[in-house]
Structures are given as structure tokens and as C-alpha cells.
Automatic annotation (TrEMBL):
<dbReference type="GO" id="GO:0032259">
    <property type="term" value="P:methylation"/>
</dbReference>
<keyword id="KW-0949">S-adenosyl-L-methionine</keyword>
<feature type="binding site">
    <location>
        <position position="124"/>
    </location>
    <ligand>
        <name>S-adenosyl-L-methionine</name>
    </ligand>
</feature>
<dbReference type="InterPro" id="IPR022641">
    <property type="entry name" value="CheR_N"/>
</dbReference>
<dbReference type="InterPro" id="IPR026024">
    <property type="entry name" value="Chemotaxis_MeTrfase_CheR"/>
</dbReference>
<keyword id="KW-0489">Methyltransferase</keyword>
<dbReference type="Pfam" id="PF01739">
    <property type="entry name" value="CheR"/>
</dbReference>
<comment type="function">
    <text>Methylation of the membrane-bound methyl-accepting chemotaxis proteins (MCP) to form gamma-glutamyl methyl ester residues in MCP.</text>
</comment>
<dbReference type="Pfam" id="PF03705">
    <property type="entry name" value="CheR_N"/>
</dbReference>
<dbReference type="GO" id="GO:0008983">
    <property type="term" value="F:protein-glutamate O-methyltransferase activity"/>
</dbReference>
<dbReference type="InterPro" id="IPR029063">
    <property type="entry name" value="SAM-dependent_MTases_sf"/>
</dbReference>
<protein>
    <recommendedName>
        <fullName>Chemotaxis protein methyltransferase</fullName>
        <ecNumber>2.1.1.80</ecNumber>
    </recommendedName>
</protein>
<dbReference type="InterPro" id="IPR036804">
    <property type="entry name" value="CheR_N_sf"/>
</dbReference>
<feature type="binding site">
    <location>
        <position position="80"/>
    </location>
    <ligand>
        <name>S-adenosyl-L-methionine</name>
    </ligand>
</feature>
<feature type="binding site">
    <location>
        <position position="82"/>
    </location>
    <ligand>
        <name>S-adenosyl-L-methionine</name>
    </ligand>
</feature>
<feature type="binding site">
    <location>
        <begin position="209"/>
        <end position="210"/>
    </location>
    <ligand>
        <name>S-adenosyl-L-methionine</name>
    </ligand>
</feature>
<feature type="binding site">
    <location>
        <position position="151"/>
    </location>
    <ligand>
        <name>S-adenosyl-L-methionine</name>
    </ligand>
</feature>
Length: 284
């Protein structure tokens, strides 16, 4: 293996291996040698900020299982790439079909519960909230509709909660969505927009490591688990699918990312669209 060198820092094979194991143990994220440069880049920033002289010193801090350091490490190591209406076909399906179906299905309780389980900086839960507002305008005041948005990374959650985005982040969404759901010119900054309070009131943001126990009892009508399981190994994925299954209401939907699949767990779900899976009403 090639060691990466920079004048001040050197990441040895042993240190890299330790970091891979550490991130796997606490977040389930699998890193391989192809991620070495990325790890180096992201952690060098922390080593510098902490005014440490080497990666070795930083690894020592992690080895001491320093509770204060762990969140900084996690926030640095996670990949948070996301966008509004990413994989648009999921939102088209929500607006055109699924949300209306839930209105019929949940008529008795007048309640809809949605979980966005790796929400990153918030673009995904806000896109879900916009879809809800568009499809269920006339039900919003009389129905109890809530979206739970969770992520392991406290930095992205803070950004998501604030709901403030650079204008270019929403440039591809329809004009009517921009004018209805985003306020322009936040404070002095004309290039930023803020998600409307209507959207923000629908969403609760909470920190949650998917590997840990989930405090929510469910059931959820819709669960979004998109572009996160790709970072996990097969065993972790199958374990998570079983847990999502338990938390879904009968007939509830699980949405995965474009390159993700259920693997052997597919037999418990019905594949009803591109990376959209329904938990059958009758258990199979
Ligand atoms: C690439 S982003 C995907 C964001 C969004 N779901 C989407 O599809 O656009 C992956 C997110 O998963 C989160 N993540 C990684 N490991 C996690 C874990 N063990 N528990 C909860 N979230 C995790 C990361 O912090 C990151 O924000």
C-alpha cells in the first residue's frame, strides 16, 4: 500500500487500518483502500485544527475513545452528498399516487408518518414536505402529518434544521415551488433562501445512528433510506432492512437509492417501482 505523505503529516497503513475499523465499529461505514485519499483529506483538517503533530497522535485520541472527539470524527468522515428532488421519480410517485392512496388508507386515523432516515443537510426531507404540501393541500389543517428526519452527523442536521440554502441549490426546482416554499434574501444575504415555516413545521430533525437502537415505535407509512446503505456491508444492510420492515405499517413503502437493492430481503417486499418497495398487507 502506498503511504500518503504531505510535509507535516503521514498516514501509515496501520493508522489507516485503525481508522477504517473505528468508523466501521461506530457507524457501520465500510472504507477500503480506494477511500484512503478521501480519509486523509478529511481528517487532515481535524489534525491541523487540533494542532496535533501527526495522525498517530490523532489515532491515540480516538483509541482513548474520547466521547468529545467522536462526533467531530464522524462529521468529518461521512459523505453528505444530496440535492432537492434527487431521484425525482420518487417524488413524482409520491405526489401523483402514493399520498392520495394514504388518504384513503388512513381515513380512520387521519394520520401520516414519514421517516427520512439519512437526511443529510435536509434537501431530502424538505422535498418530501413539499410533495406532501402539493399533494395534500386540502388535508394539511385537518390531518396529523409528520416527517421525522434523522442523520448521524450533527453538522448536517444543524444545517437541515436551519433550512437555509444557497440559491443555486434550488435552481432546478419548479418556479412555483421556489416562490411558495422558500423565502428569498435571508438577512444581508441575497443569495440565500430559507425553507418556509409550513415546511419546517412538518419536519422534526433528530440525531440518530442507524446502528443504534431506534427510539421510535412507528408505524411509518413511508421510510426513505436512500444512498446510505451503500456505505454498509451486506450483514448490516440485511439487519437494517429487517428493522425497517418491522417499523413499516402493512402496505407501507421503503424507498432506496438508485444503486441500492434489498438483496435476499427482497422476498419480504413487493417491488412496485424503481427502488420502491411495499411491505405486503398480509405477512409473507
Ligand atoms: C450520501 S448522504 C444521502 C442523503 C440523502 N438520503 C440522499 O439520498 O440524498 C448519506 C447520509 O447518511 C448518513 N449516515 C452515514 N452513516 C450513518 C449511520 N450509521 N446512521 C445514520 N446516518 C448515517 C451520512 O451522515 C449522510 O448524511
Amino acid at each position: 500500500m502506498n503511504e500518503i505523505r504531505e510535509p507535516a503529516y503521514r498516514l501509515t497503513d496501520d493508522e489507516f487500518r485503525f481508522i477504517c475499523q473505528y468508523v466501521y465499529d461506530i457507524a457501520g461505514i465500510v472504507l477500503n483502500d480506494s477511500k484512503r485519499e478521501m480519509v486523509y483529506r478529511r481528517l487532515t483538517r481535524i489534525v491541523r485544527e487540533r494542532k496535533l503533530s501527526s495522525f498517530s497522535e490523532y489515532c491515540q485520541i480516538l483509541k482513548q475513545n474520547d466521547e468529545r472527539e467522536r462526533p467531530y470524527f464522524i462529521n468529518a468522515i461521512t459523505t453528505n452528498l444530496t440535492s432537492f428532488f434527487r431521484e425525482k421519480h420518487h417524488f413524482d410517485f409520491l405526489i401523483d399516487e402514493e399520498l392520495q392512496r394514504l388518504i384513503q388508507k388512513n381515513q380512520a386515523q387521519k394520520r401520516i408518518r414519514i421517516w427520512c432516515s439519512a437526511s443529510s443537510t435536509g434537501e431530502e426531507p424538505y422535498s418530501i414536505a413539499i410533495s406532501v404540501c402539493e399533494a395534500l393541500k386540502s388535508y394539511l389543517s385537518s390531518w396529523d402529518i409528520k416527517i421525522l428526519a434523522t442523520d448521524i452527523d450533527s453538522d448536517v442536521l444543524a444545517k437541515a434544521k436551519a433550512g437555509i440554502y444557497d440559491m443555486h441549490r434550488i435552481e432546478d426546482i419548479p418556479e412555483t415551488y421556489k416562490s411558495t416554499y422558500f423565502k428569498r434574501g435571508i438577512g444581508q444575504n441575497a443569495n440565500q433562501v430559507k425553507a418556509s415555516s409550513q415546511l419546517q413545521n412538518l419536519i422534526t430533525f433528530k440525531q440518530l445512528n442507524l446502528l443504534h437502537e431506534w427510539p421510535m415505535k412507528g408505524p411509518f407509512d413511508l421510510i426513505f433510506c436512500r444512498n446510505v446503505i451503500i456505505y454498509f456491508d451486506k450483514a448490516t444492510q440485511q439487519d437494517l432492512f429487517a428493522r425497517y420492515y418491522e417499523l413499516l405499517s402493512p402496505g407501507g413503502l421503503l424507498f432506496l437509492g438508485h444503486s441500492e437493492n434489498l438483496g435476499p430481503f427482497q422476498k419480504y417486499f413487493e417491488n412496485i417501482g424503481r427502488t420502491i418497495f411495499r411491505k405486503p398487507i398480509v405477512k409473507v
